[in-house]
Amino acid sequence: NHHNLSLLFDSTMEIDFANRDQVAQAGGEPIALPLLQLISEARNEHGMRQQDFARYRRYCASKVHRLRELLSLTHADAAHRADAKKPKSAKAARGKKPKKAQQAAAQSANAKGHGNVFTAKLDIAQVADARPAHLLLFEAERAWAYSQELRSEAFDDESNPQLRKRGISRLRRAEQWSHSLHQLVQALSARFDIFARAETAAYLLIVKSTTAFDRSQWEKALQILSVARNLLNAIATNSPTSRAEALANSFVDAGEAQMRYSAYQLGNSEQDMDKIAASIATSDVCQQILPEYNQ
Length: 295
Hints:
Elements: E1 6-10, E2 13-16, H1 20-26, H2 35-45, H3 53-70, H4 75-85, H5 88-96, H6 99-111, E3 120-123, H7 131-156, H8 161-187, H9 194-214, H10 218-238, H11 242-254, H12 256-265, H13 273-280, H14 283-289
Parallel strand pairs: 2-3
Antiparallel strand pairs: 1-2
Helix pairs in contact: 3-7, 7-8, 8-9, 9-10, 10-11, 10-12, 10-13
Protein backbone atom coordinates (compact mmCIF):
# COMPACT_ATOMS: atom_id res chain seq x y z
CA ASN A 1 0.00 0.00 0.00
CA HIS A 2 1.78 3.11 -1.24
CA HIS A 3 -0.96 5.54 -0.23
CA ASN A 4 -0.23 7.67 2.80
CA LEU A 5 3.34 6.42 2.75
CA SER A 6 4.71 9.20 4.88
CA LEU A 7 5.51 6.85 7.74
CA LEU A 8 6.11 8.29 11.18
CA PHE A 9 8.58 6.08 13.05
CA ASP A 10 9.59 8.44 15.81
CA SER A 11 8.53 11.74 17.22
CA THR A 12 11.56 13.34 15.59
CA MET A 13 11.95 11.66 12.21
CA GLU A 14 9.50 11.07 9.42
CA ILE A 15 10.56 9.17 6.31
CA ASP A 16 8.61 10.10 3.22
CA PHE A 17 8.08 7.09 0.94
CA ALA A 18 5.69 8.89 -1.44
CA ASN A 19 8.18 8.63 -4.33
CA ARG A 20 9.03 4.99 -3.63
CA ASP A 21 8.09 3.61 -7.09
CA GLN A 22 9.87 6.35 -9.03
CA VAL A 23 12.96 5.96 -6.82
CA ALA A 24 13.01 2.19 -7.37
CA GLN A 25 12.87 2.66 -11.15
CA ALA A 26 15.33 5.57 -11.24
CA GLY A 27 18.09 3.58 -9.53
CA GLY A 28 21.04 5.79 -8.61
CA GLU A 29 24.59 5.46 -7.37
CA PRO A 30 25.25 2.37 -5.20
CA ILE A 31 25.43 3.17 -1.46
CA ALA A 32 27.95 1.31 0.70
CA LEU A 33 26.74 0.43 4.20
CA PRO A 34 29.10 -2.00 5.99
CA LEU A 35 26.80 -1.89 9.03
CA LEU A 36 28.42 -4.56 11.24
CA GLN A 37 31.84 -2.99 10.66
CA LEU A 38 30.52 0.51 11.41
CA ILE A 39 29.04 -0.38 14.79
CA SER A 40 31.85 -2.75 15.74
CA GLU A 41 34.46 -0.01 15.18
CA ALA A 42 32.36 2.71 16.83
CA ARG A 43 31.68 0.58 19.91
CA ASN A 44 35.27 -0.61 20.30
CA GLU A 45 36.77 2.87 19.89
CA HIS A 46 34.33 4.77 22.10
CA GLY A 47 33.92 2.98 25.40
CA MET A 48 32.28 -0.38 24.77
CA ARG A 49 35.48 -2.38 25.36
CA GLN A 50 35.12 -1.15 28.97
CA GLN A 51 31.30 -1.51 28.90
CA ASP A 52 31.13 2.28 29.32
CA PHE A 53 27.63 2.83 27.93
CA ALA A 54 27.50 6.51 28.97
CA ARG A 55 30.65 7.34 26.99
CA TYR A 56 29.37 5.50 23.93
CA ARG A 57 25.97 7.22 24.21
CA ARG A 58 27.70 10.63 24.25
CA TYR A 59 29.73 9.67 21.16
CA CYS A 60 26.54 8.59 19.32
CA ALA A 61 24.76 11.80 20.37
CA SER A 62 27.51 14.02 18.93
CA LYS A 63 27.68 11.91 15.73
CA VAL A 64 23.89 12.18 15.30
CA HIS A 65 24.04 15.95 15.84
CA ARG A 66 26.75 16.34 13.17
CA LEU A 67 24.80 14.21 10.69
CA ARG A 68 21.57 16.16 11.35
CA GLU A 69 23.43 19.41 10.67
CA LEU A 70 24.92 18.05 7.43
CA LEU A 71 21.50 16.82 6.29
CA SER A 72 19.67 19.99 7.47
CA LEU A 73 17.50 17.97 9.85
CA THR A 74 18.00 20.00 13.03
CA HIS A 75 15.50 21.97 15.18
CA ALA A 76 16.84 25.18 13.62
CA ASP A 77 16.30 23.87 10.07
CA ALA A 78 12.75 22.79 10.92
CA ALA A 79 12.00 26.20 12.49
CA HIS A 80 13.48 27.98 9.47
CA ARG A 81 11.32 25.96 7.05
CA ALA A 82 8.20 26.57 9.16
CA ASP A 83 9.00 30.28 9.29
CA ALA A 84 9.43 30.43 5.53
CA LYS A 85 5.89 29.11 5.09
CA LYS A 86 4.32 31.77 7.35
CA PRO A 87 2.70 34.86 5.79
CA LYS A 88 4.79 38.02 6.07
CA SER A 89 2.34 39.68 8.47
CA ALA A 90 2.80 36.83 10.98
CA LYS A 91 6.58 37.13 10.72
CA ALA A 92 6.41 40.90 11.17
CA ALA A 93 4.18 40.54 14.22
CA ARG A 94 6.60 38.01 15.70
CA GLY A 95 9.52 40.27 14.93
CA LYS A 96 7.98 43.09 17.03
CA LYS A 97 8.03 40.94 20.16
CA PRO A 98 11.02 41.67 22.38
CA LYS A 99 13.58 38.87 22.27
CA LYS A 100 12.98 37.97 25.93
CA ALA A 101 9.25 37.55 25.26
CA GLN A 102 10.03 35.28 22.30
CA GLN A 103 12.32 33.14 24.47
CA ALA A 104 9.71 32.99 27.25
CA ALA A 105 7.07 31.85 24.74
CA ALA A 106 9.42 29.15 23.45
CA GLN A 107 10.21 27.96 26.98
CA SER A 108 6.51 27.89 27.81
CA ALA A 109 5.88 25.71 24.74
CA ASN A 110 8.72 23.42 25.81
CA ALA A 111 7.30 23.16 29.30
CA LYS A 112 4.10 21.75 27.84
CA GLY A 113 6.15 18.84 26.58
CA HIS A 114 5.54 19.44 22.88
CA GLY A 115 7.68 22.45 22.06
CA ASN A 116 10.94 20.49 21.90
CA VAL A 117 9.47 17.74 19.71
CA PHE A 118 9.74 18.51 16.03
CA THR A 119 9.42 16.23 13.06
CA ALA A 120 12.24 16.26 10.55
CA LYS A 121 11.23 14.88 7.19
CA LEU A 122 13.55 12.65 5.20
CA ASP A 123 12.48 12.15 1.59
CA ILE A 124 13.89 8.93 0.11
CA ALA A 125 14.06 10.63 -3.29
CA GLN A 126 16.66 13.00 -1.78
CA VAL A 127 18.95 10.25 -0.44
CA ALA A 128 22.27 10.94 -2.19
CA ASP A 129 24.68 8.90 -0.06
CA ALA A 130 25.02 6.79 3.10
CA ARG A 131 24.56 9.68 5.58
CA PRO A 132 20.78 9.26 6.14
CA ALA A 133 21.38 5.55 6.86
CA HIS A 134 24.23 6.45 9.23
CA LEU A 135 21.94 8.92 11.01
CA LEU A 136 19.24 6.28 11.60
CA LEU A 137 21.86 3.70 12.65
CA PHE A 138 23.50 5.95 15.25
CA GLU A 139 20.12 7.18 16.55
CA ALA A 140 19.39 3.48 17.20
CA GLU A 141 22.82 2.96 18.78
CA ARG A 142 22.37 6.02 21.01
CA ALA A 143 18.99 4.75 22.27
CA TRP A 144 20.40 1.22 22.73
CA ALA A 145 23.42 2.53 24.70
CA TYR A 146 21.14 4.59 26.95
CA SER A 147 18.89 1.56 27.54
CA GLN A 148 21.88 -0.53 28.65
CA GLU A 149 23.18 2.31 30.84
CA LEU A 150 19.77 2.46 32.60
CA ARG A 151 19.64 -1.34 32.80
CA SER A 152 22.97 -1.50 34.64
CA GLU A 153 21.81 1.30 36.97
CA ALA A 154 18.62 -0.70 37.64
CA PHE A 155 20.72 -3.72 38.66
CA ASP A 156 22.67 -1.54 41.10
CA ASP A 157 19.53 0.13 42.50
CA GLU A 158 16.73 -2.44 42.69
CA SER A 159 14.66 -0.07 44.84
CA ASN A 160 13.97 2.10 41.79
CA PRO A 161 11.73 0.24 39.29
CA GLN A 162 11.50 3.38 37.11
CA LEU A 163 15.06 2.79 35.88
CA ARG A 164 14.11 -0.55 34.30
CA LYS A 165 10.96 0.96 32.75
CA ARG A 166 12.94 3.84 31.28
CA GLY A 167 15.54 1.40 29.96
CA ILE A 168 12.88 -0.61 28.14
CA SER A 169 11.33 2.56 26.72
CA ARG A 170 14.77 3.51 25.29
CA LEU A 171 15.02 0.02 23.77
CA ARG A 172 11.67 0.53 22.08
CA ARG A 173 13.03 3.78 20.68
CA ALA A 174 16.12 1.91 19.40
CA GLU A 175 13.74 -0.58 17.77
CA GLN A 176 11.87 2.26 16.01
CA TRP A 177 15.10 3.72 14.64
CA SER A 178 16.43 0.35 13.47
CA HIS A 179 13.05 -0.37 11.85
CA SER A 180 13.28 2.99 10.02
CA LEU A 181 16.76 2.07 8.82
CA HIS A 182 15.59 -1.35 7.62
CA GLN A 183 12.70 0.25 5.74
CA LEU A 184 14.96 2.86 4.14
CA VAL A 185 17.38 0.19 2.89
CA GLN A 186 14.48 -1.96 1.62
CA ALA A 187 12.95 1.02 -0.22
CA LEU A 188 16.32 1.72 -1.88
CA SER A 189 17.24 -1.95 -2.30
CA ALA A 190 18.57 -1.38 -5.83
CA ARG A 191 21.29 0.86 -4.34
CA PHE A 192 22.28 -1.25 -1.31
CA ASP A 193 23.99 -4.60 -1.90
CA ILE A 194 22.77 -7.91 -0.47
CA PHE A 195 25.16 -7.68 2.50
CA ALA A 196 23.94 -4.21 3.51
CA ARG A 197 20.34 -5.44 3.31
CA ALA A 198 21.08 -8.61 5.29
CA GLU A 199 23.15 -6.80 7.94
CA THR A 200 20.45 -4.15 8.39
CA ALA A 201 17.85 -6.90 8.91
CA ALA A 202 20.15 -8.74 11.35
CA TYR A 203 20.70 -5.50 13.30
CA LEU A 204 16.93 -4.93 13.58
CA LEU A 205 16.54 -8.48 14.94
CA ILE A 206 19.38 -8.00 17.44
CA VAL A 207 17.69 -4.87 18.84
CA LYS A 208 14.26 -6.59 18.91
CA SER A 209 15.68 -9.64 20.70
CA THR A 210 17.28 -7.38 23.33
CA THR A 211 13.88 -5.77 23.99
CA ALA A 212 12.19 -9.17 24.35
CA PHE A 213 15.03 -10.47 26.56
CA ASP A 214 15.02 -7.43 28.87
CA ARG A 215 11.24 -7.85 29.24
CA SER A 216 11.71 -11.55 30.18
CA GLN A 217 9.77 -12.67 27.07
CA TRP A 218 11.89 -15.82 26.75
CA GLU A 219 10.04 -17.56 23.93
CA LYS A 220 9.89 -14.45 21.76
CA ALA A 221 13.54 -13.62 22.51
CA LEU A 222 14.66 -17.14 21.59
CA GLN A 223 12.72 -17.08 18.32
CA ILE A 224 14.18 -13.72 17.25
CA LEU A 225 17.69 -14.69 18.39
CA SER A 226 17.44 -17.95 16.40
CA VAL A 227 16.41 -16.15 13.20
CA ALA A 228 19.16 -13.55 13.75
CA ARG A 229 21.73 -16.33 14.31
CA ASN A 230 20.76 -18.08 11.06
CA LEU A 231 20.96 -14.80 9.17
CA LEU A 232 24.35 -13.88 10.67
CA ASN A 233 25.66 -17.40 9.94
CA ALA A 234 24.58 -16.95 6.31
CA ILE A 235 26.33 -13.56 6.17
CA ALA A 236 29.51 -15.15 7.62
CA THR A 237 29.42 -18.13 5.24
CA ASN A 238 29.02 -15.90 2.17
CA SER A 239 31.38 -13.11 3.27
CA PRO A 240 33.94 -12.11 0.60
CA THR A 241 36.84 -11.81 3.06
CA SER A 242 37.98 -13.70 6.16
CA ARG A 243 37.81 -10.41 8.12
CA ALA A 244 34.15 -9.88 7.19
CA GLU A 245 33.43 -13.51 8.10
CA ALA A 246 35.10 -13.10 11.52
CA LEU A 247 33.09 -9.91 12.11
CA ALA A 248 29.74 -11.64 11.38
CA ASN A 249 30.79 -14.54 13.62
CA SER A 250 31.56 -12.11 16.45
CA PHE A 251 27.92 -10.96 16.31
CA VAL A 252 26.80 -14.61 16.32
CA ASP A 253 28.90 -15.14 19.48
CA ALA A 254 27.55 -11.93 21.07
CA GLY A 255 23.97 -13.30 20.99
CA GLU A 256 24.89 -16.67 22.44
CA ALA A 257 24.57 -15.82 26.16
CA GLN A 258 21.03 -14.44 25.68
CA MET A 259 20.08 -17.52 23.63
CA ARG A 260 21.44 -19.90 26.24
CA TYR A 261 19.67 -18.10 29.10
CA SER A 262 16.34 -17.88 27.22
CA ALA A 263 16.53 -21.62 26.38
CA TYR A 264 17.33 -22.40 30.04
CA GLN A 265 14.30 -20.36 31.19
CA LEU A 266 12.13 -22.43 28.83
CA GLY A 267 13.56 -25.72 30.15
CA ASN A 268 15.64 -26.44 27.03
CA SER A 269 18.97 -27.97 28.07
CA GLU A 270 20.47 -28.24 24.55
CA GLN A 271 24.01 -26.82 24.63
CA ASP A 272 24.51 -26.44 20.86
CA MET A 273 23.01 -23.08 19.91
CA ASP A 274 23.11 -23.87 16.17
CA LYS A 275 20.87 -26.89 16.87
CA ILE A 276 18.45 -24.73 18.86
CA ALA A 277 18.39 -22.11 16.08
CA ALA A 278 17.79 -24.81 13.43
CA SER A 279 14.89 -26.33 15.38
CA ILE A 280 13.23 -23.02 16.29
CA ALA A 281 13.85 -20.84 13.21
CA THR A 282 11.69 -22.82 10.78
CA SER A 283 10.89 -21.13 7.45
CA ASP A 284 7.46 -20.14 8.82
CA VAL A 285 8.99 -18.53 11.91
CA CYS A 286 11.61 -16.74 9.78
CA GLN A 287 8.89 -15.32 7.53
CA GLN A 288 6.77 -14.31 10.52
CA ILE A 289 9.64 -12.49 12.29
CA LEU A 290 11.20 -11.02 9.14
CA PRO A 291 8.93 -11.04 6.06
CA GLU A 292 11.90 -10.23 3.78
CA TYR A 293 13.96 -13.15 5.16
CA ASN A 294 14.05 -15.20 1.94
CA GLN A 295 15.20 -12.20 -0.06
